[in-house]
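anyone seen this seq b4? input:
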Amino acid sequence: MESGRIIISGQELCRTPAELIGSPLFRRVLEGFLALQYRLNTELTRTVAACGAEKRLPDGSLSFDANRLSEVLTLLMANRLEDVAARRPDLAPLRGAGLTLQELVEDLYNFWRKTERFVVVQETFRAANIMTRDYHNWFIQVVQSFEDLVRETYRRISYNASGELPMIYRQLPSGAGAGLLVEQIPWDCPPGPYRQLADIPLVQLVVIEPPLIYYPRRNFREGTFRKVDYNPLSGARVSKDEWYCFPAKVGLLLIFIYFRRDFLSLGTSLSNLFEVALGDEVMERKPDGILVFGLEEGLAEEDRTVFFEDEVSGLVVGGVRGGEEVDYFGYLKKMALTLHNAIMINRGMLPLHGAMAHLVLLDGRPLNLVLVGDSGAGKSESLEALRGLAADNLSQFKIIFDDMGVIGTGDSGEVRAYGTEIGAFVRLDDLKPGYAYSEIDRSIFMNPQLNNARVVIPVSTHRDITRGCPVDLFLYANNYEEVNEEQPVLGFLDSAVEALEVFRSGARMAKGTTDEKGLIHTYFANPFGAPQKKEQHEEIARRFFSLMAGSGVRLGQLRTRLGVPGYESSGPEAAARAILAYLSGD
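predicted toks r here
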């Protein structure tokens, strides 16, 4: 048990309640629970004493005997409490204590359920086996059987302790919140510092039981992602016993995201954000980039989040220092997207920090809308408001990207846009009230009790985000300006030069998603690769803005007013209505 996290290997999975109660896993959980009760001096310690499981330490303080309490619970697996007390004179004090003992069992069960629980099963890779239905069903059944076992064990002990059957059965998530099937897969691993990654198991299948709720130790991101001239892997140590790899399809690219087991909740959450590359895909191509999240060595003392362009291997490598200060999903997500952007700039494409939707009107007319803006600019919020209005005004609404995309050219030289993620990492505060709960059956929540609470929700498919969409409206999400006659909700810019000035300025009112405050400017509203490669980016941006302006793409601003007090909800809704009015020709 690691700081409120329980990682159960395939070898630790039990088949019967008796095996579970007698397992090292149960012992670890029980010890953690009892230590908490004695630290808080709760009334449950009296029940521990009645079980004969209390002991006095040499310093005179009271502690517990986990073996003794485990023995009592084992007896209660098959016997009613009164029978146990009658047959065991040493347990006679338990006679009449059924309700308090049941309370202890209930609190132990809740303690277990409030931890982050993972089942990790490692299998031998056999090419294409992951694609079979039977293989999937086998792993799903492994995870489900563990859930059933935990619930049955709890109910059996609870009934034998109290003698009362519940009238309402709540099928609460009781096993693993997430199950991961991992395999060691051979891939085209370059020599040198990369060889230590060759045997790290890769995630191939994820089973989650939403809604998952995680409580990472940080709730916002700070600092920048710095381009460095050294490989963060050169001085690093990455062990197959402590690390996993999520082979992510980041849009058109393949990026291997390695994370230390300390960050398993963040790594698991990637499954709601990126498509998993399967074994055969991993073997057929070398990754375009590598991210190593949770390094203890390898980074310069002043560095926390860096990336390096390795000209020898052709890889872009990201490194993030481990520790409590980076225990926030935004670091993992944004570093992966920074690698994506650096690679795309090298390939002559223009990365966009923004959102895109493909809309189809009731009369069949399509429209592809791109909103560019930094964190908190109102991109996702305006699109979600537009989604809410879609039922009466649109026949189709598809998210192409929610945070990061890229534009390139099609076979005929036309501008086409591509996404990077199949999911969204959005602020709960800025969503339409109730929306997150309508999607609760697919969601992963993070720190829902805090400011900047987040939810990771799947919103698209990899097929949709990579097919390449033409662009009709290309708008800057302006979250800080009031609306008036001279500054309408939706306003268009007269030329590529004027548009470049607006987009290049990257102005926004900070919304608490990072450590920034007030009105700030970020080059192209994209701190994730664009400023670090500004000279290349500027040349690409001029080319694409000229191409868009010359091919009929409308360039402009959408005033979301998300950063204007009082307009946090009504601003994005008004922006959505302005889009609909434009589509209708009003």
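The mean pLDDT is 91. The first strand starts at residue 5 and ends at 9. kinda curious what u guys think
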